[in-house]
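[09:14] KT: can someone run the structure on this one? pasting the chain below
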Amino acid sequence: MGVNIFSGPAAPAGPEPRPRRPTPGEESWFGGVSAPADTQSLIDDSRFTASWQTDAEARLRRGPVTGVASTTFERIYRAFIAARAALGAALAATLAVASAFGLRPSLPIGALSVAYATLAISMWLLPRFRRGAAPHTFARLRSPQWIATIGADLAFFTGLHVASPGSSFNYVALLVLPVLMAGVLTPRLMALGTAALATFALLGTAWLGLLSGGDAPLLMTQAGLAGSGFFVITVLAGELAGRIAREELSARGSMEMARQQAQLNRLVLEEMEDGVLVVDRGGKVRAANPAARRLLAPEGTSRAAPFQLRGVPAWGALVLAVERAFAEAAWPETGRDVTLPFAPDLHRTLRARIRFTRKREARASEDVCVVFLEDVRNVQARSRQEKLAAMGRVSAGIAHEIRNPLAAIAQANALLSEDATDPAQRQLMRMVTDNVERLKRIIDDVMEVAPGRVHDVGSIDATAQLAAVCSEWAQAAGVQLGEQSVLRVDLPTEPIGVMFDAEHLRRVLVNLLDNARRHASQRSGAILLTLRAADEASAEFSVLSDGAPISADVESHLFEPFFSTRSRGTGLGLYICRELCERYGTRIDYRLLPPDAPHRNDFFVNMRRAALQPSEARLHLTP
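[09:31] RB: done, structure tokens below
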């Protein structure tokens, strides 16, 4: 049974009924093989639509899945239609030339020739006769396409052969066209049946010749040889059609795999944190993923590819790096740093890694390179995180081991203080006690951020919790609340539920308030606490202060452990805040507000919102 890779035209979007699918016995050489459901869903998935895809990829994606197969079948069908039209024109022209030389054909031959030429040329000229041409339409003898083509050819050519027993024209060769057409476009059984009909027509004509006194051996031998040739042509045409079907199926599978691979590559590149640019020798960016477009813009994203790198002053260093890569035909594996000066006070340093698509010896002729961009701050942050992770494990172990001897020192100091009467000795013992307590606090801080199991927590009312912590902190720090207070609180009147542990939120806020008080002035409202619902999924509170702006050198190390600008500071406060926030999917960061803002230093915490329990009570900040 033949293999059919054509499933006919795709089903229309309207209510038009789908054509009947042929049964296995009716399958033609070009059968229907539809794309797998998972492949089709992958192709139609809108998530893979990327603004930075190339024109070739866009054309590949727009190509219909069944377009290749349907076009091939229709092309073969149109070739036969054109051949029939040419043959009909040749028959009409032959009659005209014969008449000019005095060889007048009989009336039946002339009528059949003109009728066939009219039918064949009409089907070739009028598009409506080509509509609906599909493999399943040639799998039934009753289909209009089969009757108007193969059936009509058999009838006309057989009639011409019967009507010309004594004519100088031989019309037997014309029967090759419907036999060949059936061998390519119809199922094997129907193709063999068409060859049998043509053979019976020749044998019938030979029998009529015997009745009129013809040579029986000669006529039957000619009919038998011609009929055998028809069967051979049918089998060969079927084999060729089967080979075309297999090649089309293989090409279609390769195209599907290429389309899937291209779409998966686009998805991966879209989700990459590193920027990816495809740049040619002329400096034109042919493709750019969203991460690269964000890195190339001072804020937001740059325009979508294609665009030109040259002409933008801030990108000058990147242009020089690309030109250098093309000139040297090589680039360090670790990359090189380029700085993009977007503004006098805004610079962004990127780590550029440039790769070529061909082998090293052929790089000199490269016309395209791939540039991987990464913010140097992220590179440094990852390096610090790796070091901090190792140091954190060591620190947690050391802190755990220090607790026992520290407790012994505290106990021995307490016993000594009971018998000490000399003021100098008691002062030294107080110094020991103070430093023991300081060491305990450092150990508690280190153990607090040591890796451990995160307990499941529910939602808390951020408004009530922040108000309670502010009251507690103000009382402990000796800060008077009121209109003239150093601390000013701006909280919403409605509760805001967030996912956080109440005690951990208290520690974060107390650390931020202590840090703000340490650097702020003593004016009224020097410290400002605000809380707002950013959107339906997040809420944000800020601790702002009017102290001197934090320099860029200090800002890059704000959340690192053991980094402090004070001689007696542990440098763990902000680091602990960040570690506690990350446990609950919360982000803490610092931003410097514009010079005209009354509070330039802003430490903000972005929290995940959650629904509150109806029974939760709210606390209020007392003036």
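[09:33] KT: thanks! The longest strand covers residues 346-356.
[09:34] RB: yep, looked fine to me
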